[in-house]
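Supplementary Text 2. Reproducibility record for the structural model of the 103-residue chain.

All settings were left at their defaults, and a single model was retained for analysis rather than an ensemble. We include the record here because the model underlies the residue-level annotations in Supplementary Table 4.
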Amino acid sequence: MAAVKKVTLTVEPSTSPDVVGYKLYMEVTPNPVTYSSQVFDLGNNTTVDLSTLLGMTTTDGVYNLGITAVDDAGNESSFSLIDNVPLDFLAPDAPGVITITRS
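Retained model, structure tokens:
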């Protein structure tokens, strides 16, 4: 199994008292993030390891990300955005055949 470098995303919590969770939306740059973009439910976490969350489903590239807060009625906030995030979760191929030579 390859080892992929950890990429951590941290967002300041919403100040609204009825927030029950957060969602991460993403689009390949230059596409803007919308409520129709690919979405990941973050639960109540404001810090997530993107390599674990996205590593198995996301190809390497540059992405626009948006985070929303969700309240107990299911309403979503506007986006907190970060654009042009380079993500690289693909480890290189392993080296070739190993040879041991004894002299």
